[in-house]
Q: What sequence folds into this?
């Protein structure tokens, strides 16, 4: 789950003098109906629990001719345009805010937002958050939400953190930020959070998991210790993960997700870099992987080191209870 970053800057007819961490006001232009502010963070202040892509929005209140806000109320300002344009994206036709792409190191940008409002004079507050509303858990046909109430789920306003709905096709909250089903939760053919990827039946964070999506599975990029015998406990895959099976790797090959080298022995991207001559015949094999199942007629009761090569799939026997690097999937 991502950690909430929620900051604001206050504007008047001139730049505010108060210092506000992470969002520093610059000023407002009544003629162009723009507000400008600096968004920044320092290297090391944003760890793996933070997103580098933040949601930005502006609330405003009209100022009367006598320089008061009497009789007026705060409202969300629709966004006509925002800069730096190369870093800005929108959520479809939603103009209640916009995404600003930063980075995981030090970041600083002067942001100018043109507001689509009728007020000739106004005060405004700019807000920044890296915490999209999300369906944080699912049980028995009901999702539990995290964010800022009220939530708008599939077009229906919900002033509660629970809602009986199986499929979420759209989700926002009081911030106007687009959301979705959270990390490692079943998506039920709905929308995942913008930074997550649909893998199988779940919403996965491939970056944080250090994984790729292939053949309807999530594959760890790094290798784990897997013992070559038929026992579900003889591996060091993380909880909820399992060693990749023979059919999983054949799917990788048949789908064209791995390609053959034309010369030499390929550096293995599947099991951590076995020497080709140790596993399969040099010059023929190109991919090697750990197969998890055993059969009673295999020599010494061992599992196989399998090779995918120029001539198809072949099995190489290894001794019982030999430890190998292998891939974990879920």
A:
């Amino acid at each position: 789950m991502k950690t909430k970053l929620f900051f604001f800057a206050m504007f008047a007819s001139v730049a505010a003098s108060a210092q506000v961490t992470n969002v520093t006001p610059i000023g407002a232009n009544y003629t162009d109906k723009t507000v400008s502010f600096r968004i920044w963070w320092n290297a090391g202040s944003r760890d793996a629990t933070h997103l580098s892509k933040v949601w930005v929005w502006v609330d405003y209140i009209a100022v009367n001719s006598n320089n008061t806000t009497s009789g007026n109320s705060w409202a969300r300002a629709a966004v006509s345009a925002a800069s730096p344009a190369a870093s800005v994206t929108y959520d479809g036709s939603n103009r209640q805010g916009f995404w600003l792409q930063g980075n995981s190191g030090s970041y600083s940008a002067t942001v100018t937002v043109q507001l689509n409002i009728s007020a000739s004079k106004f005060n405004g507050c700019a807000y920044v958050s890296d915490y999209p509303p999300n369906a944080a858990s699912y049980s028995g046909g009901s999702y539990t939400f995290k964010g800022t109430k009220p939530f708008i789920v599939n077009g229906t306003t919900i002033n509660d953190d629970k809602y009986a709905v199986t499929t979420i096709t759209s989700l926002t909250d009081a911030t106007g930020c687009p959301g979705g089903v959270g990390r490692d939760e079943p998506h039920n053919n709905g929308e995942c959070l913008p930074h997550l990827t649909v893998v199988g039946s779940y919403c996965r964070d491939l970056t944080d998991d250090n994984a790729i999506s292939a053949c309807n599975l999530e594959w760890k990029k790094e290798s784990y210790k897997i013992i070559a015998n038929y026992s579900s406990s003889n591996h060091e895959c993380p909880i909820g993960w399992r060693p990749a099976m023979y059919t999983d790797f054949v799917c990788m090959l048949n789908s064209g997700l791995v390609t053959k080298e034309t010369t030499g022995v390929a550096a293995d991207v599947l099991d951590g870099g076995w020497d080709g001559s140790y596993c399969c015949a040099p010059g023929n094999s190109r991919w090697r992987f750990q197969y998890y199942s055993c059969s009673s007629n295999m020599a010494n009761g061992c599992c196989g080191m399998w090779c995918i090569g120029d001539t198809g799939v072949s099995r190489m026997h290894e001794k019982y209870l030999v430890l190998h690097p292998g891939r974990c999937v879920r």
